[in-house]
């Protein structure tokens, strides 16, 4: 029996594989270890909820998987369930889920954002440094900029569409009360969750377009660094999934500089991480 875990920005996805049968479960936790101090307890409880005592191996796709401190927290949380624990950066797992061991570039735009490209033996991780430093073109980025604009309008008594949408989402017109709600619990998740509302209710807003364009320009740096003339690209994360406009702007910017082939994902992160462990791909 094997367990694959996708430890994302707002959810923990688990897949138990036994005799070719996959049992999946999604738990809505603020799971990202860059924003949750109690990740160890949350992860332990998530696995405990599966009611399985032991696994042949556990493989984790993890936001923050390049940082030793976060990896150690995860290993400590899981050591009760298996002696064989593999931890991979989520962006590398996403790449495998699209291309297996082939060449290409993947871009994640969810709660946060990151880019990973592989060409032959060359590879490049880019972005993914967390909301305080980067995360351009992410749900957090869109939500933060939209809130900044709309709340400023409200303070000035100038209720344009951004302010009106904020009032609609929070069912509240008091700026201080809205701020209090945003800062309750996981502020990064709260802001990223708001971006889903923006993408559905104000999809053509310049903030959405600008965020997409900036992420595309960052992606071009990876493409050019790896010297791609034609590039296979995989798009992952809730922002791409929830916004046709965001995807179109992103691909439009890329296509002006390089020939792009958009590739569909072959499997989930949970299963991809297990396959990577089975193939003996070096984990971090």
UniProtKB/TrEMBL annotation:
Q: Which residues form the ATPase BadF/BadG/BcrA/BcrD type domain?
A: 3-260
Gene3D superfamilies the UniProt entry points to: 3.30.420.40
InterPro entries, per the entry: ATPase_BadF, ATPase_NBD, NAGK-like
- One Pfam entry name: BcrAD_BadFG
The GO molecular function terms of this record are: N-acetylglucosamine kinase activity
For this protein, the record's PANTHER family field holds: BADF TYPE ATPASE DOMAIN-CONTAINING PROTEIN, N-ACETYL-D-GLUCOSAMINE KINASE
Protein name per the record: ATPase BadF/BadG/BcrA/BcrD type domain-containing protein
Q: Write down the species.
A: Caldisericum exile
């Amino acid at each position: 029996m094997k367990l694959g875990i996708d430890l994302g920005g707002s959810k923990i996805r688990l897949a138990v594989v036994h005799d070719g049968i996959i049992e999946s479960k999604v738990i809505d936790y603020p799971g990202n270890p860059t924003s949750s101090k109690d990740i160890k307890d949350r992860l332990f409880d998530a696995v405990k909820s599966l009611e399985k005592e032991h696994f042949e191996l556990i493989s984790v796709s993890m936001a923050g998987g390049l940082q030793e401190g976060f990896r150690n927290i995860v290993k400590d949380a899981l050591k009760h369930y298996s002696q064989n624990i593999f931890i991979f950066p989520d962006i590398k797992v996403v790449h495998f889920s699209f291309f297996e061991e082939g060449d290409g570039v993947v871009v994640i735009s969810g709660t946060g954002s990151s880019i990973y490209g592989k060409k032959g033996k060359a590879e490049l991780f880019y972005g993914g440094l967390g909301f305080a430093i980067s995360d351009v073109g992410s749900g957090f980025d869109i939500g933060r900029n939209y809130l900044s604009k709309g709340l400023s309008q409200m303070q000035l008594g100038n209720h344009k569409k951004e302010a009106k949408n904020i009032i609609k989402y929070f069912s509240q017109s008091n700026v201080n009360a809205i701020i209090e709600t945003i800062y309750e619990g996981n502020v990064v998740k709260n802001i990223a969750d708001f971006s889903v509302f923006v993408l559905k209710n104000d999809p053509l807003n310049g903030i959405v377009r600008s965020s997409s364009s900036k992420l595309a320009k960052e992606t071009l740096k990876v493409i050019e660094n790896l010297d791609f003339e034609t590039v296979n690209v995989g798009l992952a994360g809730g922002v791409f999934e929830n916004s046709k406009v965001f995807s179109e702007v992103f691909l439009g910017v890329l296509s002006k500089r390089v020939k792009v082939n958009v590739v569909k994902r072959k499997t989930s992160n949970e299963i991809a991480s297990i396959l990577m462990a089975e193939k003996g791909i070096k984990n971090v």
